[in-house]
Amino acid sequence: MSNFHSTKVFSLAELGWNNRFQQQLTLDEWQTYMPARVVAQHKTELQLLTQQGPLTIKAPIDSTVHDTRLTVGDWLLLDSQHNLYRRLSRSSVFRRKAVGGKLEQQLIAANVDTVLIVSSLNDDFNLNRLERYLVLAHEAGAEPVVVLTKADLCTTQQKQQCIAQLHSLNNLLMVVALNALDAEVKQQLAPWCKIGQTLALLGSSGVGKSTLVNTLLGENSQQTQTIREDDSKGHHTTTGRSLHILPGQTGIVLDTPGMRELQLANSEQGIAETFRDILQLANQCKFSDCKHDNEPGCAVQLAIEQGELTSRRLSSYLKLQREDVINSATLAQRRSQDRKREKFYRSVQSDMKRLKNR
Q1: β-strand pairing of 143-149 with 114-120
Q2: What is the pTM (predicted TM-score) of this model?
Q3: Rounded to whole angstroms, how far apart are CA atoms 270 and 276?
Q4: pLDDT (tens digit, 9 = 90+) per residue, 139-163?
């Protein structure tokens, strides 16, 4: 649960309001409508925080009207009757391909400044999975920080090895190793926990996201479970996305459920940013359409031979690239079909109106 039930009234700045959102409003809108931030989302209602206090409104029935497809973290403008007037343009937005065979993208969160990609320092640590989360963060437009939990359960050498592997992906990548139960967590994450700054926690089930949220909040707001001893895997705890206002004016944190399936779509920019080293090498290949396999003059394969690049990283890049191309094409085809269907329906409705008016 998010702490929107608190009797404390928060200022807009404490809720994450800044000049980017202010500049989207006309003077008339600022005087007429009330800004509200989505802190929790359910099938039929939205739970909001405003500078007047918490508020619950009905979720829009038609998500296509006025671009009202909403998600946790969105900023809305409400009229005096608490009806939705419009959603403000987002500073960042996290999306993924909907799970299963659904041909659509699922919104995860909006207006996030920093994403804490959480992984535990046990069998959960997986570079391929972390690269997938980095793509998601870069595509969304948020700053990624990798948080390695359960640092108290491993040796210093194991911790240093994991950090070194992450820096091999990008030596500028921010990495923090911690014990999610330790009170020092607040100090370790202080650079990203500032008034009005929004953090999102992403990661697999059981890596310690909810424990981390509880430590930051200083209370047991989120239910937690222990890991399984046989395979070091965690239990699924959080079942919904929710915003939490951190105490002492130290930012906002968004907890998310562990994602069993994270399919990429329309993530070309995120892939390019995450695998910038490979793209720089690819520009040096003899052929512009090099597949980085057995072609002569392949700078990528040469880097692997010389130990400057791992075959694992190239394989991860090619896999995510193929997945993104396939899913993006499928979604584009679905959107095209939907537009044709809507055009047909409008045509039928227009014909019916003409016949009725004769």
Answers
A1: parallel
A2: 0.82
A3: 10
A4: 999 999 999 999 999 999 999 999 9
